[in-house]
Amino acid sequence: MTGFGIDNLPYGIFSTPGTHPRTGVRIGDAVLDVAALTGDDVHATGSLNAFMARGPAAWAQLRADLTGRLSDAAHRATVEEYLHRLDDVTLHLPFEVADYVDFYSSRHHAENVGRIFRPDGDALTPNWTHLPIGYHGRAGTVRVSGTPVVRPSGQRKAPQDAAPTFGPSIRLDIEAEVGFVVGTPSELGTAVPQAAFAEHVFGVCLVNDWSARDLQAWEYVPLGPFLGKSFLTSVSPWVVPLAALEAARVAPPAREHELQGYLQDGEPWGLDLDLEVRLNGEVVSRPPFDQMYWTPAQQLAHLTVNGASLRTGDLYASGTVSGPGRDQRGSLLELSWNGTQPLTLADGSTRAFLEDGDVVTISATAPGAGGGRISLGEVTGQVLPAR
């Protein structure tokens, strides 16, 4: 089973030799040419943005239409005419990224980071259980899975160094995350409540927010992440529609105290997703998304509560996904405990942080409507030497 059955139907942008990029839907190990099948020019733009901007009614209508065509034998000949083998297509960035926001919503991750860097203090900052912490990232360096990860250079300063030095990062890391893609925009000055989450968010993708921990450590006080994060953020080529994740919805963890009204839990928008992180083909972690303290609906509500508007193509990510076990940590910072406990791989080599040539792949599955599991695909990247 591929995890890409009729209960999934994720959207992407693909091309074949000599043709322009266009919308496709993955079914099994094939890609269905939605532009050719429907004749709707909105699917021939080379981006999902124009279709996403049409809103939830259009999303539901197309999903129903595709489900009907794929499940009715009467349409088999027509459908097969527009199917392409996955191996024969090139996959592109599925949407034009308008803005990018990265959150920090895993309590296990936040506590691990706090224990690493503040061993004698509180693991969490005082605001962490009151609001979803986030920062604005760089939309222009969000790229599709498979884009090479050129090792970034910048300033870094180890505690024992008298002065900062400049050079390639020596603490290059991953962050296993889940991303949420906005389809329907909102008006400036108007907050989007949690109840409107599904009216604005089109679907879900996987994210690896590559991080240069040494650059980040030197630059981030007092304003937060900058060059240590902005060099590349990788996203999976398939956007799974929210409608495919109904069976994955779960209640979030218990709250430590009463939240502000706009953040109080309404509909359950925790998601039961099982992530898997592979380093050079070897599984090194299986982070569970169902334990994320802040849900994507709360993140969207917080992102807009000050009146900030949404745009079609906005991407916001969950932050690193980590669970309570060592084999559930979503970053090498945690897996190697800041380099003090390096991982030993099957070939006998060790890793504290990424080396040139390393390939990292993040994948995920979720419960499907039919009782099986659907796939969110994967996001992958290989580290290349600094230029």
From TrEMBL:
Known EC number: 3.7.1.2
Top-level class of the enzyme under EC nomenclature: hydrolase
Residue ranges annotated for the Fumarylacetoacetase-like C-terminal domain, each copy included: 101-369
Statement: the UniProt record of this protein carries the keyword Metal-binding: yes
One Pfam family named in its UniProt record: FAA_hydrolase
Record keywords: Calcium, Hydrolase, Magnesium, Metal-binding, Phenylalanine catabolism, Tyrosine catabolism
Coiled-coil residues: none
Lineage top rank: taxon: Bacteria
Pathway: Amino-acid degradation; L-phenylalanine degradation; acetoacetate and fumarate from L-phenylalanine: step 6/6
Fumarylacetoacetase N-terminal domain span: 8-94
Cofactor requirements of the protein: Ca(2+); Mg(2+)
Protein name: fumarylacetoacetase
Organism field: Blastococcus jejuensis
Gene this chain is encoded by: fahA
